[in-house]
Design brief:
There is one protein chain. This protein is an alpha+beta fold. The chain has 3 helices and 6 strands.
């Protein structure tokens, strides 16, 4: 199993200054594998990469915003999900983007690109949650509420432009069935 080298712990400021509101459009957070296990068939073994390390790196290089993406080493293990209605059936959706936004005190913005033919796209941006705050006593209910909102908006765009969607994840698969 190839090992993926960790990020350089001695991040240096770049020679240029990124523009205001620059965004890292793709990053992963890797928690301890005993808490967030890897697929038995994963193709690489990532080092621990906690959110705190990522935030430090952003501060050094001057990037203000970021988009978290679930890494492939977790496969279909979406243990950090909540089941909410989606297209008529309960489906798991990740809560990590909302948790990270709350930690960073940043808004959650939905971005959808709808293909309209040729080289034409409609880009739609919606602010889902302005300044997310998670209180311990209501955390689960709040995460469910935000996730339901996200699922409703994705469902809206699926119905608006049904031939725009390529889904490579089986939302309704039985997680207990053998693969």
């Amino acid at each position: 199993m190839p090992y993926c080298y960790p990020p350089d712990p001695n991040t240096r400021r770049p020679k240029f200054t990124p523009p205001a509101n620059s965004c890292d459009t793709h990053f992963h957070v890797f928690g301890p594998p005993e808490v967030f296990p890897f697929l038995s068939t994963h193709e690489y073994t990532p080092p621990a990469a906690p959110l705190e390390h990522y935030r430090k790196m952003l501060a050094v290089i001057g990037i203000e915003r970021a988009v978290v993406v679930q890494p492939s080493v977790h496969g279909l293990d979406n243990s950090a999900t909540v089941q909410v209605p989606f297209l008529g059936e309960p489906a798991p959706f990740p809560v990590a983007p909302f948790r990270i936004a709350a930690l960073l005190g940043r808004p959650v913005v939905l971005m959808v690109g709808l293909y309209r033919g040729g080289n034409r796209y409609d880009l739609c941006f919606e602010r889902l949650v302005d300044a997310p705050k998670l209180e311990r006593a209501t955390r689960d209910a709040t995460l469910r509420q935000w996730t339901e909102l996200y699922a409703r908006r994705i469902e809206h765009y699926c119905r608006l432009a049904p031939y725009n969607w390529f889904n490579f994840y089986d939302f309704w698969a039985d997680p207990t069935a053998s693969r």
